[in-house]
């Protein structure tokens, strides 16, 4: 990072300079991500309202821009209520685990060329490991609440998340086969092109396009977004696995959910839409910083998720599981074989 030479020039040893630069970088990213969650929640509500031809949040602040901040402050000042029969230690650990897992997944996500906390060579494996940990916070919350409603919802969540993680894993395997690398930044570099129509070299415009669709739908199920929000179906389970939570712990679950949504949108933009790469190799577009393209693609994918939430009716649970196990799993497994054959014949990896 550019901050390391600056700190070394002021007499700090390399170790301390690296540590301080990483601390500053991580702190800035965490603050930006939390502020982006507030913006994304507001955008989600505004898009939903627009589809239903109503105004949405429009009272707190100009155009309702401060509504999410007001809601967060309201949660923070409410009383934390603990059920009498709850396991208090696990009850409080559950939201902390969910938020921690949501944050550490961003360690290998590059915002721009070189703008990544940990540019490790096994970034995809790291994401596999972190995504498998997300279910623990949900199960811990349902079990520790000592409520049949919360526990039933947690079991639903565990089955749903594990089912769609399998499909997401096979989709990511097809992408790393195409790129020839487990490094997340190298996957973006593998989509670079010297032609004017640079976007035609992105994975979304190749034989991997069906995998983009599967990844998008699986991301909705993985984050319990409509139409797959069956573990929070109010008519059946009151409010889902966090029905016994209030105040700050409830807010942490909300933060973790939207952090995961943004992370998956960013990951989709990296795996299929070229990450920070410009869609056209034109001089005035290449002057635009890469982080702008990354954020624009991430915002577009979230807009698509918000539109699905507003337009698609909720699935039944048997339909949800059938889609995951009988449609997505065989299709993604078949595409792994087809992608491997394509790479073997055409030598696609850079």
Q: Could you explain how this protein is built, in words?
A:
- The chain has helices at residues 3-9, 14-51, 67-76, 88-104, 123-144, 148-179, 184-189, 209-222, 234-237, 247-272, 283-286, 290-311, 317-346.
- It is built from 13 helices and no strands.
- The longest helix is centred in the first third of the chain and has 38 residues, at 14-51.
- With 350 residues, the chain is mainly alpha-helical.
- α4 packs parallel to α10, α5 runs antiparallel to α6 (148-179) and α10 (247-272) crosses α12.
User: Helix-strand pattern, N to C?
Assistant: HHHHHHHHHHHHH
Q: What structural class results from the helix and strand content?
A: mainly alpha
Number of helices: 13
Largest sheet: none
The Rg value, from CA coordinates, equals 21 Å
Based on Cα principal axes, name the global outline: globular
How many strands appear in the DSSP assignment? 0
Helix residue percentage: 55-70%
